[in-house]
Amino acid sequence: MSTAATLIRVRLPDGSTREYPEGTTVQGVADSIGKRLAKAAIAGKVDGRLVDLSHALRGDASVEIVTEERPEGLEVLRHSGAHLMAQAVRRLYPGAKLGVGPVIEDGFYYDVDVGRTLSPDDLPKIEAEMKKIAEEAIPVRRRELSKDEAIRIMQGRGEALKIEMMNQDIPDPTVSCYEQGEFIDLCRGPHVPDTGRLTAFKVLKATGAYWRGDQSKQMLQRLYGTAWATRKDLETYLFRMEEAKKRDHRRLGQELDLFSFQPVAPGAPFFHPKGAIVYNLLIGLMRELYQKYGYQEVVTPQIFDVSLWHTSGHYANYKDKMYFTLSDEREFAVKPMNCPGHTFIYAHSKRSYRELPLRLADFGRLHRLEQSGEIAGLTRVRSFSQDDAHIFCAPEQIESEITGVVKMLTEVYTIFGFSSPRVCLCTRPEKSIGSEEMWQKAEAALAAALQANGIAYAVAKGDGAFYGPKIDYQVRDALNREHQLATIQLDFSLPERFDLRYTSAADREERPVMIHRAILGSLERFFGVYLEHCAGNFPVWLAPVQVAVLPIADAFNGYAREVAEALAGKGLRVKLDDSNHRASAKIAIAQQQKVPYMAVVGEREQRDRTVSLRERSGGDKGAIPLDDFVRRVTEENGARR
RNA sequence: GCUGCUGUAGCUCAGCCGGUAGAGCACUUCCUUGGUAAGGAAGAGGUCUCGGGUUCAAGUCCCGACAGCAGCUCCA
Length: 641
Hints:
By secondary structure, the chain is an alpha+beta fold. It has four domains: 7-67, Ubiquitin-like (UB roll), CATH 3.10.20; 72-238, Threonyl-trna Synthetase, Chain A, domain 2 (Threonyl-tRNA Synthetase, Chain A, domain 2), CATH 3.30.980.10; 259-533, BirA Bifunctional Protein, domain 2 (2-Layer Sandwich), CATH 3.30.930; 547-638, Rossmann fold. It is 36% helix and 28% strand. The chain has 20 helices and 34 strands. The strands form eight sheets. Strands 16, 20, 21, 22, 23, 24, 25, 26 and 29 form a nine-stranded mixed β-sheet that branches. Helix 3 (71-92) crosses helix 4, helix 8 crosses helix 16 (523-533) and helix 13 packs across helix 14 (436-452). It binds one RNA strand of 76 nucleotides through strand 7, helix 6, strand 10, strand 12 and strand 13.
């Protein structure tokens, strides 16, 4: 160390300040703090900017050491994982071209062109090569290069895609590259100091992906991988994935006999009796709340003359997703939305401001021709219904109406155990109708309503409906995955297109505003999301079978029938299992069907007029009097628990 | 829609280098009448998704259709 070295002041997260010679690296700072930290360090944060450990400090700065357990540390680890995978691919498939390799939730991917499609057999080979490179502990070096020089290097390596990126997307005159052994990649970084830091990773799958997500461009192979700080974390993650698979709603739908799909109607679910019970209970809940929140339910047609869709703007903006039919020499379209139909009910009579807000709800079946590759289980279907409603109101009622929707929605989500939703304000999309002022007014009104209710939200530019901006609600499920459910859309266009009016207090003809809103959203999608959320363990009020009555032997079938009738008499859903299985088999079957309560009856129960209770969560809960049991389940059912 | 993978009994799946189809569960019948996660036996059940092609011979190989699954910018 030169005696003339200038000292710089480094502020640490705990507020303390230390002095170091200028040029000290982040690793150097970590080393000076402690052995454990020095070892766990994976990157640094200098004045809030993520940098490599090898980053040399050139002046006073606040420095944070990022360890691999921290979210940023994991991100660095995963980004390096992507490089490691790319290096393995370059070693195994000479001439392979690299696309992009970003970090994603729980892992990373890298798009590569290896001149053919990769099969599942390729994955273990790639992973084995990655292990080899990791064990070599190759130092990772950052290089700042001029763009021209970087392009020359990439040309030498045949990296056509990287060159395209530099030419088209990177305006900066200099770029950074990361080098590890014979491998070099264009990358912002930061990265781990050497490949030996990668100890827990796995190559997960390979699929096709278009270069830059553009269908007209070449198809690359997207390799997915994951990396974690420790092997244990990796195992936990893989276990979590297995658990998620077990509660996949398509699988549960089959196992619990809730619904099915048939090739004759792609994207259109068939709800079996048990599934239909749940489906109708969801509708029942909403109907009850409609009463409370002042909605009126209507029933409207399925198909309309195309002229209606021309007026509404759907023909121009939504035609690709609509079903058409030529019948009676007249062209009709199957409705993809309820809104235009509702305008007819509104316009059927002369409306006064005294009637507003008019809230019309409709569980009508909708059909949308989603792209064949988009449809999946219940989450993306072509035939569905929504807990849909349209609120016709005066402009000055917008805020209070939206407040009302927000209140109702909170009540609903509480019932289902979805908490802290994320809210988005979606603005004007490219394909849309209505004037610019109209949109600005509508977007401002939604923002005002959100602010008035103290709701934090993000803006999703261009994600609105074609007729107006919207507020979307995303909830997190039991596995911490996000799902979009509620939507609240503001619409000044349809009232104009259908020339809707009301007479104001000042006896003037005014234009109402329409608020489109759904809380569960599509009932089909909600069904799927909730089924996964509860893993098929429906609460008592939603369970297709609430109680399974299980006689120990035929001799007690009579009493078992009495028990079943006592429950059914209270409107409860009961299944009497009078098969000749043994009690333990009957229990296993009911357990697998995730029935909340099992009432086992034998000689003792018959004598004492009790049932031996067993809950889905397992274990014999002992005998309770039949009357008490009926009361308990009835109460729980009514309370929607 | 595009790319890849898959399609065998009601369900989950096996079926080798092409030689006429198998298991477990479920179902039917019989035996068993049992106390908290599956008692035993017998039987029935298949146009191997559909349509073409290659072959002496196709569930198996090739082409096409349909359906399902995964993916299709979370921007170096």
